[in-house]
Amino acid sequence: MKTNIDNARKTDLIVVEDNETLRHELCDFLSEEGFGVRAVDSGESLNQTLRERFTDILVLDLNMADEDGISIAKRIRTHLPQIGIIMLTGRVLSKDRVEGYQSGADVYITKPARPAELVAAIRNLADRLKPAPLHFPWVLDTLNLTLSYQSNVPIELTANEAKILKTLALTASCVTHAALIESTAPSKLTDAMSRASLEVLISRLRSKISWYTGPLNPIKSVRGMGYQLCIKMKIQ
Question: Hey, which residues does 140 pair with through a beta bridge?
């Protein structure tokens, strides 16, 4: 009997496994357990998938043909420290386990993994990774025109950049191009020029924020509609 399915659905996973058969089997099993599951076969594919949408936990195989799991774990832990990493591998030696944890793994499970153990590990890690209530890692200061990430040095913004971020932060879903353009104070520019100016502003904001978000795209483009903020932000 499956339990805590409603809670499990709140957890998003990316399975990183280059063996096609194992990848499909693992994804099917975890999907049946109620998790949101995406799958990739390489570190490069993982980067692209993270740009499209953030994830809670990686289920990461170590033995891959191109970039191996240890290298991926080190890179992800550096750029996206909030992601959980579960290493699933056939390496059973103590030194391999130590290397796995040193590279950034939260959990190290040797193959063949028992299904119940893997599910329990994912749910336990997901619970530990839940942010504290009302915790906002990003703070937008509209008076001083700065954007702060935790205790790091604030990022300086222009007035229009601050207005764009405020408009995005106030809406959980996509904000249309027209609404974003209007938020910067309507002008007599043509629609084409206004859209071009907006794209420049969004590009500049992504560049400023990406130092902390790594491969995660902080402002997602929604084709033909507008943009959506992908980071949790408080306005003050």
Answer: 147, 235
For 101-131, the DSSP string reads HHTT-SEEEESSPPHHHHHHHHHHHHHHHPP
Pinpoint the residues of the chain covered by CATH 3.40.50.2300.
5-129
CATH classification of 138-235 is 3.40.190.10, yes or no? no
Residue 59 reports pLDDT greater than 90: yes
Name which of 96-110, 136-150, 172-186 the model is least confident about: 172-186
DSSP 164-193: HHHHHHT-SS-EEHHHHHHHT---S--HHH
CATH 1.10.10.10 intervals, the chain = 138-235
Write the pLDDT tens digit of every residue in 137-148.
Answer: 889 998 999 998
pTM exceeds 0.90, yes or no: no
The model's confidence at residue 193, banded by pLDDT at 50, 70 and 90, is low
Q: How far apart are CA 192 and CA 40, in angstroms?
A: 37
* Tokens matching residue 88: 């699933």
- Taking alpha carbons only, the member of 218, 225, 227 closest to residue 168 is 227
Instruction: Determine phi and psi for 79, rounding to 5 degrees.
Output: -90, -30
Helix (H, G, I), strand (E, B) or coil at 120: helix
Class of CATH domain 5-129: alpha beta
- 120 half-sphere exposure, CB direction, 13 A CA radius: 6
